Fold this sequence. Notes:
By secondary structure, this protein is α/β, with parallel strands linked by helices. The chain folds into two domains: 6-147, Rossmann fold, CATH 3.40.50; 180-397 and 415-454, Dihydrodipicolinate Reductase, domain 2. It is built from 13 helices and 15 strands. The chain has helices spanning 16-31, 50-64, 70-78, 94-103, 122-131, 154-167, 183-193, 224-249, 258-270, 387-391, 398-408, 417-427, 448-454, and strands at residues 5-11, 37-44, 80-84, 110-115, 142-146, 173-175, 207-215, 272-282, 300-307, 317-322, 329-336, 353-359, 363-371, 378-386, 435-438. The strands form two sheets. It has a nine-stranded mixed sheet with strand order 14-13-12-11-7-10-9-8-15. Helix 1 links the parallel strand 1 (5-11) and strand 2. Helix 1 crosses helix 11 (398-408), helix 8 (224-249) packs across helix 12 (417-427) and helix 9 (258-270) runs parallel beside helix 12 (417-427). The structure holds 6-O-phosphono-beta-D-glucopyranose. 6-O-phosphono-beta-D-glucopyranose (BG6) binds next to loops.
Amino acid sequence: MNTKGFIFIIFGATGDLSKRKLIPAIYNLLKHGKLEKFHVFGISRRPYSGEKMVDTALEFIEKLDPEPDPGLIKRLKENTTYFSANFTHEQEFAQLKNAIDKLDKTAVYDRIFYLATGSNHFDVISGNLIKTEIAQQKNCKTKVVFEKPFGRDEKSSKKLNDVISETFTEEQTYRIDHYLGKEIVGTISVLRFTNRIFEPIWNNAHIESIQIKLDENIGISERGAYYDTYGAVRDMVQNHMIQLLALLTMEIPDSITGKGLRDRKAQVIKDMVVRDALLGQYRGYKQEKDIPQDSKTDTFAALNLEILNSRWAGVPVFLRTGKFLSKKESKITVKFKKVKCLFDDDYSTEGNILEIRIFPDEGISLYVNTKTPGEKRATQVKLDFCYTCLFGENTPEGYENLLNDVINGDQTTFTRFDELQNAWKVVDPIERIKIYPYEKGSDGPEEMALFNERNNLKWS
Ligand code: BG6
């Protein structure tokens, strides 16, 4: 149990992230005994209340805990205060400062500022925090968490980072990527580096291709204004997908925590180049709330990437993500080359496949060849590890892990600026000349057939 007190200050408190992820994560931290003394301050423009922040989060809390503890919900409500303020106005920070000072007279609570707003507000909020001295306290630690995407391209992210680093040190700065908080994603490094059956063959001599699919069957909900500024490549590829790929392809780090890991990720991202891309937009997108009639924003992206280093040159990497596709599926597939052996004349074998499922059916499967009974033929069978069957449903959720890491000052699962900057360099050159339409509920634009053909690709 952490007996220290924590104040969470959420900017953008009426948004989707606060109700879907942050408040439920705080509930779970309480439930799992990882938080004792705390207070949540929510800030956004529109009239709202602390109670409403918890009430609107309830349906998402119930996804983690079908029967929420009424005592914990009551505590959460009693410890949540909302301010309606325009956070671009310095003078409007005064009431927040007064409330925090009143609650924490001796300034002993650690303060965690969570910027769950578009990155276009990051610099002005950081500046106001300093000007009003809310973020400078002698007795307590101040940490600041920035939601992704960090900037909109390399140039704007660099500018943003320069401003932020005038205010906060790197040790105080947590750039979040919630995929890194998922338990199964944390398994990737352990799987690669602690298993002799994988580590020595994790290279272009043995691996044929890599696929990462983050398909979604939902649309943009109420997030039109945010989404249209970014689109699929900036919302999913630049961060979640490139981070997953970095974990899969980085060189062996000195340790799988802290600096070593972040150095290795930054290094491999630098070697990534996009070879082919196809972008799409679902039909009906321009009729969504807050979307301009002439929007050219991508809601679908399929990419072929190569990693130009001696370990990976020649191995195609395929990424695919999109809104309103046929189903929600987040999956990594590593295809190994076929073994060339004497048997081949008699037995037709397949290359091994390693599948890491993030959603649904969280788990890992390995496909291997076995003899078909009574025949001189191989059959590929699946060796399966089901995460929840073994560890139970109640494993910590991504945001709970990440908030816990912020509380404990562990930056391993947060991205450093050089990683993000290199990732922008990978996606910035993608041409946006043509955005192909696709039907809701499909697997993307019809032109995907050509993309698949020219890249000799079959999606797993
Ligand atoms: C967020 C994106 O980072 O990830 C959303 O902004 C997307 O657009 C979400 O829906 C997907 O996350 P998950 O964990 O549900 O796969």
